[in-house]
Specification:
The protein is an alpha/beta fold. The protein has one domain (about 55-330): Histone deacetylase domain (Arginase, Chain A, 3-Layer(aba) Sandwich), CATH 3.40.800.20. Helices cover about 45% and strands about 10% of the residues. The chain has eleven helices and eight strands. Strands 2-1-3-8-7-4-5-6 form an eight-stranded parallel beta sheet, with helices on both faces. α3 crosses α11 (about 315-330). The longest helix is centred in the N-terminal third of the chain and has 22 residues, at about 5-25. It is globular and about 80 Å long. The structure holds zinc ion. Zinc ion (ZN) binds near residues 183, 184, 185, 268 and 312.
Length: about 325
């Protein structure tokens, strides 16, 4: 190799090294960092688990993927790694008896739900190692009604958000978790598992008249957890202004005194207008603004750390456009 060729080779090698360094090191490479968020998903979520005409269907995820592609956001999508063992973490919330019953009687649904848990865990790992700022878990079925009954409750098998909260606390010693649930339905399972826990603040807006008939405002927590569970009933026809006022006036103040280390969103889009199961009138723009409110809280208290997980949303077109709008803000806000 002559001197000229050697110099050219050295320069190329140096620039490749430099690029690799900046593109993987967030602390030094913010200006080269393209994306705040990653959308974790897996082809298994395209499998049907309920009957033919059931609203909880594969198209819920399929249409989001199509919408992401249409809006040129499909580069954010990452396939969930299935190799991670998650039974230990599921067992922090669900009983062994429940897990065994699901594996025996609802094996496909159990595989979908445990894949969603894997997605949450992978997302938390990437957020904590600062590879990304926040993440969205594009998974199904939902999880926030799942109890330990050995079967599904309200289309839910494992409570993904609750398991993620335990994982963050135990693996990363980030104790104070704020769970925000804007699904049309009350997240009764999330409330149940953290009702006496002062380290997990559960904030839920929902319609009390809908399934599962829980979520009364007087249910504020028990023992040391008193004051760390907040239920807000919203009536039919609740619109963007109505829900935004609550998030800006109530949630922001509660979060300022709680000071979360990590925020989890139970992102249900059955609270969107024209949902098959809901009667709210929240638009895609409303969900964008809700996302901004939550991101502001996260920026103030926990360096932007948010994991958002798909819950309900049964109008497949509405669910796909609201979900994509939510992801757009997660990725672009404050850049
Ligand atoms: Zn719901």
């Amino acid at each position: 190799m002559n001197k000229r060729k050697f110099l050219k080779f050295s320069f190329q090698f140096f620039f490749v090294l430099l690029f690799k360094f900046f593109s993987t090191t967030r602390a030094f490479g913010d200006f080269l960092y393209k994306n705040n968020t990653i959308v974790f998903t897996h082809p298994i979520f395209l499998k049907k688990i309920f009957s033919e005409d059931h609203p909880e269907k594969p198209e819920r995820v399929k249409h989001v993927l199509q919408e992401l592609k249409k809006r040129k956001m499909d580069h954010l999508v990452k396939k969930i790694n299935l190799s991670q063992e998650v039974d230990f973490w599921i067992n922090q919330i669900h009983s062994k008896k429940h897990m065994e019953s699901l594996k025996k009687k609802f094996s496909l649904a159990e595989r979908l739900s445990s894949t969603a848990v894997r997605g949450c865990i992978e997302a938390v790992d990437q957020i904590m190692s600062k590879q990304i700022l926040n993440a969205f878990c594009l998974s199904r079925p939902p999880g926030h009604h799942a109890l330990n009954t050995g079967k599904d409750e309200g289309f839910c098998f494992y409570n993904h958000v609750a398991i993620a909260a335990k994982y963050i606390q135990q693996k990363y010693n980030k104790k104070k978790i704020l769970i925000i649930d804007w699904d049309y339905h009350h997240g009764n399972s999330t409330e149940f598992f953290f009702y006496s826990d002062p380290d997990v603040f559960c904030f839920s807006t929902h319609n009390l008249e809908a399934y599962p008939g829980t979520g009364f405002p007087e249910r504020t927590g028990s023992g040391k957890g008193k004051g760390f569970n907040l239920n807000i009933h919203l009536p039919c026809n609740t619109n963007d202004q109505d829900i935004l006022r609550i998030y800006k006036d109530v949630l922001v103040k509660k979060a300022d005194s709680f000071k979360p280390d990590f925020i989890l969103i139970s992102a249900g889009f059955d609270s969107r207008e024209e949902d098959l199961l809901g009667c709210f009138k929240i638009t895609d723009s409303g969900f964008e603004k809700l996302t901004e409110v939550v991101m502001n809280i996260a920026n103030i208290h926990c360096e932007g750390r948010i994991l958002s997980i798909l819950e309900g949303g049964y109008n497949v077109e509405g669910n796909s456009s609201a979900t994509t709008s939510h992801i757009k803000i997660l990725n672009n806000f404050n850049k």
